[in-house]
Design a protein that fits this description.
The structure holds three protein chains of three kinds.
Chain A (H helix, E strand, L loop, with lengths): L1 H36 L15 H10 L11 H16 L10 E4 L2 E4 L8 H22 L3 H32 L4 H6 L16 H15 L24 H26 L13 H24 L5 H30 L1
Antiparallel strand pairs in A: 1-2
Helix pairs in contact in A: 1-2, 1-8, 1-9, 3-4, 3-8, 4-5, 5-7, 5-10, 7-8, 7-10, 8-9
Chain B lengths: L1 H23 L3 H21 L3 H26 L14 H22 L20 H10 L2 H26 L1
Chain C lengths: L4 H24 L6 H4 L19 H31 L7 H24 L8
The chains are: A mainly alpha, B mainly alpha, C mainly alpha.
C-alpha cells in the first residue's frame, strides 16, 4: 500500500510540475502564435527567443499589490479562484498518457489511476468548475463582476450539455467509461481504429470541440471576460496571484479539454511503434494535444467574437439538437450492423 | 476492510457537519455552499460503498446542476446583507418542536424494527456485474425498471412545462 | 476500489497548492490600501447603485432547462455504455430492438420538451 501511495504521489507531483510549466509556456506560445498570424514577431527580448518571458511575467505578478475590495465577502472571494484551480487540476489523474513502462522490473502504468467511471469523473469536475466563476462574480460586490460571472456560468452550463451528449455518442462505440480502456481500444490498424475515423463520430468530434471551446471560455466564446465588454467580467476585482489562478485555471481547462478530445477521438497515446517503445506514447500524446491547442489558438485569432445572445442561441438551438441527433444516428448504425 | 470503514466514518461525519452548517448560516449563499459540501461528502460515502457510478452521477446532477440552480436563484434575488428577514407568522416556529420530536420518534421505531443482519454483504471489488456499476444499472434500467424509466421521461417533460409556466407568469 | 484514493490525494495536493499561492500573494505583494483602490471598479467613475439588486430571471430559466437535460444525459450514459455489450451478449441480445426503441422513445419525449422551450421563446436571450 505504501508503495502504491508513493507511486501516486510521485506521478501527481510530476504531472503538477509538467502541467504548470506547460501553462506558463502556453502563454508564451499564445503570444508568439498570435503575432505570427498577425505578421509580427512577438515577445523576443526576454531571454533568447522570448523563452524567459513566462518567468518574467510570473515574477511580476507575484509582486503586484494584493487588493481585496472593501465590501467583498472575504471567504468566498478568496475561495473562488481556488475552486476554479482545484477543479482544473483534479482531472489530470484519469487521463492516460501512455501504456506501460518497465522501470527496474516494476511495471508502471502511464496514468495515475484507472477509474471505471473516468468519463463521468471528468464531467463532474467540469460541472464543479462552474462554481469558481459564478462565486467570484458574486463575491466581488461589483455589478460588472456579478453580471459577468452569471453570464460566464450560464454559457458554461449551456455548452456542458453538448459536451456531455457528444461524449455519449463516443461511449456508444467504446462501451466503457474508462479512459485508459478507450485509449487502448483505439490501437492497431495504423490509425484506422481511431474514433475520429469511424463514420458518425467525425461529426461528433466537431460538436465536442466547439462545446469544449465554449466551456473553457475561449474566443470566439469569451464575451463574458473580454476586455472591451463588462470590464473584465468575473475577474475584474482580482489582482496579483488570484488573477493568475484564474488564468492558470483557464489554460489548464484548455489542456484538459484537448487531452480528453485526444483520448476520446484521436486515439490517445497510440501511434507507430508504440508497442515496442512505450515512452513514444508520451510523445504522440503530447503532439496530438499540442495540435488541438494550436487549433484552438488559430480559431481564436481568426474568428470574431460571438455576441452573447448569438452564443446562447447557438448552444441551445444548434449544438444540442445536433448532439442528440448524432446519438440517435450512432445507435441506429450500431443496431443495423449487429 | 478497515480502511474503507475509516473513510466511511470520516465522510459521514463530514456530511453531518456540513448539513448542520446549512441550518446555522445566516447568509443563504453560505448555506447553499455547505449543501454542496454535504453532497460531495455523500458522494464519497457512496464511493466507499462501492457504488462508483452513483457517486459520480451524484456530483454531476445534484452538486453540478441542482445546486447551480439554487445558487443562481440566490444570486438573482440578491438580498443585501443588512436587509432584515421578515417573519410573518411567529407562532409557527413553536409548532416545529413537536413535529420534529414526532419525526425522531418515528425514525427510532423504524430503526429498532430492522433485523440486525439485513444488509447484504458488499460486492467483491472488481466485479463488473455487481450492483452499482454501470453495466448492472444499464441493464436493470431497461429490463426490470423499464416502466419507471419511461415515466421519468414524461415526468421531466412535465417539469419543463411547469417551470416555464411558473417563470413566465411574472414576465407577462 | 483502492484506485479511487488518488482522487483524495490530488484534492489535498491541489488545496495545498492553491493555499500556497494565496498565502504567497498576501505576503509578498506590497500593501498600500487607499479608499479609491478598495472601492468597486466602475470604469473610473463613482459606483452608482448597489451591487445587490435583483438580476434578470433569464438565468434561472437557463439553469432550469440545463438541469432537466442534464438528468436526461445521465439516463443516456448507462444506456450508451451497455448498448454494445447488449448487442453482443447472448443473454440480452433478443431484447436489442426493445433496448433501442425504449431509449428512442425517451429521447423523443425530451426532444418534444426542447421544442416546447424553443417555441415558448425561453431560449431567446434578448427579448
Amino acid at each position: 500500500m505504501t508503495a502504491l501511495l508513493l507511486e501516486w504521489t510521485i506521478k501527481i507531483a510530476v504531472l503538477l510540475g509538467v502541467l504548470m510549466t506547460a501553462v506558463a509556456y502556453l502563454t508564451l506560445l499564445e503570444r508568439k502564435f498570435m503575432s505570427w498570424i498577425q505578421l509580427r514577431v512577438g515577445p523576443d527580448r526576454v531571454g533568447y527567443w522570448g523563452l524567459l518571458q513566462p518567468v518574467a511575467d510570473g515574477i511580476k505578478m507575484i509582486f503586484k499589490e494584493d487588493i481585496i475590495p472593501l465590501e467583498a465577502n472575504r471567504a468566498v472571494y478568496l475561495a473562488a479562484p481556488a475552486i476554479a484551480l482545484i477543479a482544473a487540476l483534479m482531472s489530470m489523474i484519469v487521463i492516460p498518457y501512455g501504456s506501460q513502462v518497465n522501470v527496474f522490473g516494476r511495471v508502471i502504468d502511464l496514468h495515475v489511476t484507472r477509474m471505471n467511471v473516468g468519463v463521468l469523473y471528468v464531467l463532474a469536475l467540469t460541472s464543479l468548475g462552474v462554481y469558481g466563476f459564478v462565486l467570484a462574480g458574486w463575491a466581488s460586490n461589483n455589478k460588472y463582476s456579478l453580471l459577468g460571472g452569471l453570464r460566464s456560468s450560464a454559457q458554461m452550463i449551456s455548452y456542458e450539455l453538448a459536451f456531455g451528449l457528444s461524449m455519449v455518442s463516443v461511449l456508444l462505440y467504446t462501451g466503457t467509461l474508462d479512459l485508459a480502456s478507450i485509449a487502448e481500444g483505439q490501437s492497431g490498424w495504423y490509425g484506422l481504429k481511431w474514433n475520429i475515423v469511424q463514420f458518425p463520430l467525425m461529426f461528433v468530434f466537431v460538436v465536442f470541440y466547439i462545446a469544449a471551446l465554449a466551456e473553457t471560455n475561449r474566443t470566439p466564446f469569451d464575451l463574458p471576460e473580454a476586455d472591451s465588454e463588462l470590464v473584465a467580467g468575473y475577474h475584474t476585482e482580482y489582482s496579483s496571484m488570484k488573477f493568475v489562478m484564474f488564468q492558470v485555471a483557464e489554460y489548464l481547462n484548455l489542456i484538459t479539454s484537448s487531452s480528453i478530445a485526444t483520448t476520446l477521438f484521436l486515439g490517445g497515446w497510440n501511434g507507430p511503434f508504440v508497442d515496442r517503445f512505450p515512452l513514444l506514447g508520451l510523445v504522440y500524446f503530447g503532439v496530438k494535444v499540442l495540435a488541438l491547442i494550436l487549433l484552438a489558438m488559430w480559431i481564436r485569432y481568426t474568428v470574431p467574437r460571438f455576441r452573447y445572445d448569438q452564443l446562447m442561441r447557438f448552444g441551445w438551438k444548434v449544438l444540442l439538437p445536433i448532439a442528440i441527433i448524432n446519438i440517435v444516428i450512432t445507435a441506429t448504425i450500431l443496431l443495423l450492423r449487429s | 476492510m478497515r480502511g474503507e470503514t475509516i473513510l466511511f466514518v470520516v465522510f459521514a461525519v463530514l456530511a453531518l457537519v456540513t448539513a448542520l452548517n446549512v441550518l446555522v448560516q445566516r447568509n443563504p449563499l453560505y448555506s447553499a455552499l455547505s449543501l454542496i459540501g454535504t453532497l460531495a461528502s455523500l458522494s464519497a460515502v457512496y464511493m466507499t460503498l462501492r457504488a462508483q457510478f452513483i457517486a459520480a452521477v451524484q456530483i454531476v446532477v445534484y452538486a453540478g446542476a441542482i445546486m447551480v440552480l439554487f445558487v443562481f436563484v440566490i444570486m438573482l434575488l440578491n438580498v443585501p446583507k443588512d436587509q432584515p428577514q421578515v417573519e410573518k407568522q411567529k407562532g409557527l416556529r413553536y409548532l416545529a418542536i413537536p413535529f420534529a420530536g414526532l419525526l425522531i420518534a418515528e425514525t427510532f421505531t423504524v430503526l429498532q424494527r430492522l433485523p440486525a443482519r439485513s444488509m447484504p454483504p458488499l460486492p467483491a471489488s472488481g466485479g463488473d456485474q455487481a450492483v452499482g456499476t454501470t453495466w448492472s444499472i444499464g441493464t436493470a434500467l431497461f429490463t426490470d425498471y423499464l416502466l419507471p424509466f419511461e415515466v421519468t421521461s414524461v415526468l421531466i417533460l412535465m417539469a419543463v412545462v411547469g417551470a416555464m409556466v411558473l417563470a413566465r407568469r411574472e414576465n407577462d | 476500489m483502492s484506485n479511487y484514493l488518488p482522487v483524495l490525494l490530488v484534492f489535498v495536493i491541489s488545496i495545498l497548492v492553491a493555499g500556497a499561492i494565496l498565502i504567497l500573494s498576501r505576503f509578498v505583494g506590497k500593501g498600500r490600501p487607499n479608499p479609491d483602490k478598495l472601492a468597486p471598479y466602475e470604469c473610473g467613475v463613482e459606483p452608482v447603485g448597489n451591487a445587490r439588486e435583483r438580476q434578470s430571471v433569464k438565468f434561472y430559466m437557463v439553469a432550469m432547462v440545463f438541469l432537466l437535460f442534464d438528468i436526461e444525459a445521465v439516463f443516456l450514459l448507462p444506456w450508451a455504455v451497455v448498448f454494445r455489450g447488449v448487442l453482443k451478449s447472448d443473454v440480452y441480445s433478443p431484447l436489442k430492438y426493445i433496448f433501442y426503441g425504449e431509449m428512442m422513445v425517451f429521447v423523443v419525449v425530451l426532444f418534444v420538451g426542447l421544442i416546447y422551450v424553443w417555441r415558448k421563446g425561453i431560449l431567446e436571450w434578448n427579448r
